[in-house]
């Protein structure tokens, strides 16, 4: 994970300042006897339902990559990874799915395969499916913003155990 102090972050309320305060009353629709905070409907869905937010790519280059890792010397994991790869190809043919790499490639230090996601709807469907079906494997989910080092570190999300990446590969890409 990248040092968070390397980057600047705009306020999450940018574009939402100077609005009426939100209520703090409890909503009875909470789970397990806990009351949630009432969130008044606006009648307008977030634009994030229709496309990835800036600076994430919104074209055929894909908005998100998912790298699914396995220890290539572990026969059970390697078999599970190949079976998962086949299942993903059958269940999600609209996604771009690359070959299984049985040895390190690029910054990835173990065996892995990659899946590309193009829309928020695909993201919601595939990521929720993968949470349940990834088994013993780890997965790195990252956006594509044009900054591969930051995308693979500070903007990345892991499922399962976080694995090391050879970040020197990215540093070589950005040298003058």
> Rounded to an integer, what's the Rg over CA atoms?
19 Å
Show unreliable segments.
none
In total, the number of strands is 7
Shape: globular
The helix-and-strand class reads alpha+beta
Largest sheet: 5 strands, antiparallel
Mean pLDDT: 90
First-to-last CA distance: 24 Å
**How many alpha or pi helices?**
4
- Secondary-structure element order, N to C: EEEHEEHEHEH
- What is the topology, as strand order, of the major beta sheet? 4-5-3-6-7
Strand content: 15-25%
Bin the helical content: 10-25%
General description of the model:
The protein is of the alpha+beta class. The chain is 24% helix and 16% strand. The protein contains four helices and seven strands; from the N terminus they run βββαββαβαβα. The protein has helices at 75-91, 120-133, 148-152, 168-174, and strands at 26-27, 36-37, 64-70, 96-97, 111-117, 138-143, 157-159.
